[in-house]
Amino acid sequence: MNARNLVTSLLLVVVFGSLGVFAWQRGMKPPATVPAEPATNAADVLVTYFTTNVRCVSCRTIEELTRRAVAEGFPAELAAGKVVFRVVNTDLPEHQHFVDHYTITNKTVVVSHQRDGREVEWTGRQDVWLHFGEPETFFTYVREPIRSYLAAK
Amino acid sequence: MTTVDSLYTVCASGFALGLVTAVSPCPLATNVAATVWLARHAASRRRAVVGALAYTTGRVLAYTSIAVVLALGALGAPALSAGLQHWLPPFVGPLLVLTAMVLLELLPLPWTGAGRSQATAERLVRLGMLGEVLLGFLFALTFCPVSAALFFGSLLPQALAGPAVAPPVVAFGIGTSLPVGVFALGVVFSAGFAARFGAGITRWQPRIRVGTGIALLGLGLYLIGRDTLRLWGS
């Protein structure tokens, strides 16, 4: 076998082998471990970052900035459980109902106003994707509905 | 605000969102692949311009098709977005590697070979243009988290609530292909300029084909690692 045939065979193995691995991974069940969710019953405002199994660099940045927007903007409310931040993976079957309820088409942030453990209204923060390069603008954008819901309580 | 003003605003927004999508990190690999693919027409500026327009047409067709599917209510935006993000990206890397193997003459095409007639050659040129339309169509449908967020999350709600759905979606498609077209044509025109001082670009054509093949091979292997095998995040 000459070098040309060897390279061709190697590349074909990579192409079809990778597709085989992809098909095999798709056939496997998702991991059974689900991160523990924070208690949300006492919360007035629930800030949720919706993610999927596929994590990108920008997605991680948005998750981290949202966490900081809540933690640094509302430390007392967070400690008292009035504001709760959580991450929800919509690829898990038990979280599929969120996709329909909030019409989720991609990773996004939703701020939900709660009363007695029930949602009374919510605001999507879709433009986190336009602001994640400017943290201060991002913080203001995410904190605005939180502030508004806390004031309305 | 009048309907015309409103339409102008939503189109400008669509175009800007398209540009933001094109320059964001996650579609970078497919954009570089498209640029390399279009820039291979260095011997003919006219062919390069037509190729860039064909690529743009493919992208516009893809986004318009999605908007039509959603407007008709055939599928919901969440299901369509999730389906495209889950099922298309893993196949782009293998496809690029196979294309690179054809360019590098590691794999033969069934219709090529000695004794090819002029008519067949012309058909292949037309197929080449169709190939650029299909490339634009495929790359547009290959949504990554950023492009899905900006198209499904930011553009479509604006477009569906605006005075007309198609114009902002078309503007988005043009915006996403503009940087690729500009870079590819920049390379082609620069190569043409440089060739004036050399022996002519035609002599370089085989090297350009090999260079395109090697670049697509590298990008294809990168995409296999990222989107097919998920060895690292995008």
Give me the side-by-side strand order of the main sheet of chain A. Answer: 2-1-3-4
Order of helices and strands of chain A: HEHHEHEEHH
Tell me the series of helices and strands of chain B, N- to C-terminal: HHHHHHHHH
Report low-confidence residues of chain A grouped into runs of 5 or more.
none
Helical proportion of chain A, percent range: 40-55%
Tally the beta strands of chain A. 4
Q: Please give the most extensive interface between any two protein chains, plus how many residues each contributes.
A: A-B, 32 and 39 residues
Q: What percent strand of chain B?
A: under 5%
The pLDDT mean of chain A sits at: 88
The shape of chain A, in one word, is elongated
Note poorly predicted spans of chain B. Answer: none
Cα Rg of chain B? 19 Å
Q: What is the number of helices of chain A? A: 6
Structural class by SSE content of chain A:
alpha+beta
For the biggest sheet of chain A, the summary is: 4 strands, mixed
Measured between the Cα atoms of the first and last residue of chain B, the distance is: 40 Å
Report the structural category of chain B.
mainly alpha
Question: How would a crystallographer describe the biggest sheet of chain B?
Answer: none
Description of the structure:
The complex is a heterodimer of chains A (153) and B (234). In chain A, 50% of the residues lie in helices and 19% in strands. Chain A is α+β, with helices and mostly antiparallel strands. A 4-stranded mixed beta sheet of chain A has the order 2-1-3-4. Chain B has 234 residues and is mainly alpha-helical. Chain B is 78% helix and 0% strand. Chain B contains 9 helices and no strands. Chain B has helices at 3-23, 28-39, 45-72, 77-87, 89-103, 118-141, 145-161, 166-195, 205-228. In chain B, helix 1 (3-23) runs antiparallel to helix 7 (145-161), helix 1 (3-23) packs across helix 8 and helix 7 crosses helix 8 (166-195). The model of chain B has no long low-confidence stretch (mean pLDDT 83). The interface between A and B is large, with 32 and 39 residues.
